[in-house]
Amino acid sequence: MNKQLVEGKQSHFWFCFCCTNLDISASASLLFTVWTPLPVVSWLAPFIGHVGICREDGVILDFSGSNLINVDEFAFGAAARYLHLDRTKCCFPPNLVEHTCNIGYRHSEYGSAITWDDALQLSRRNYEHRTYNLFTCNSYSFTANCLNRLCYDGSMGWNMINVAALMLFKGYWINFMSVIRSFLPSMLVVSLGVMLVGWPFLIGLLSFSLLLLGWFVLGTYCFKSLLDC
């Protein structure tokens, strides 16, 4: 058997093993979004990271480069946080008149799916022809596109901001080492910056974080054409 395939399957089993605090029946599929810190960027702004979304078999899909959707090779390292998604909150219409969501026509026009994996595959085909840009079209955009095709939680307004907020406030750490891996570099950068520059470094770092957050918020809600991905 292919060595890479074996290692990939082991990573799925380990990921599922780490999610022990979830109450999942034997017949339920493991539907997740996952998050990992970005090198350098997360050191300066720990709330910024890279996200992916799992297929029904646990394989992670993520948008990590122009015309590139990673399959079973989560970019930038192992997942550090996860969020369990509820299948019952998805809309899988067999036809136009059998939508379970309240925005059936808009959902069909956008591109609905009949299964979870079907939605991810449609988004994958779409993003295999997109140019990656950390500030305008990134992994959060891809995950939001998948959730919109699923009309997850009855909404088609998923975007970078609410996907990030969902993971930030409702996600879980996989283990303690994931916390260390996510925050230790940032703590070292802050400590070194304060030692060498002093308190102005913290002011500059805070300003950078606020500018970055402001860009995504304004681009998402006020200047939508900038982040139309």
TrEMBL record:
TM helices/strands, residue ranges? 157-176, 188-218
The cross-references to PROSITE patterns, in alphabetical order and at most eight, read: EF_HAND_1 (PS00018)
Query: InterPro entries, from UniProt?
Result: EF_Hand_1_Ca_BS, TMEM222/RTE1
Instruction: Provide the GO biological process annotations.
Output: regulation of ethylene-activated signaling pathway; response to ethylene
What Pfam families does the annotation carry?
A: RTE1
Q: Which GO terms describe its cellular component?
A: endoplasmic reticulum; Golgi apparatus
Q: Which residues form the signal peptide?
A: none
- Keywords on this record? Membrane, Transmembrane, Transmembrane helix
Transmembrane found in the keyword field = yes
Q: What is this protein called?
A: Uncharacterized protein
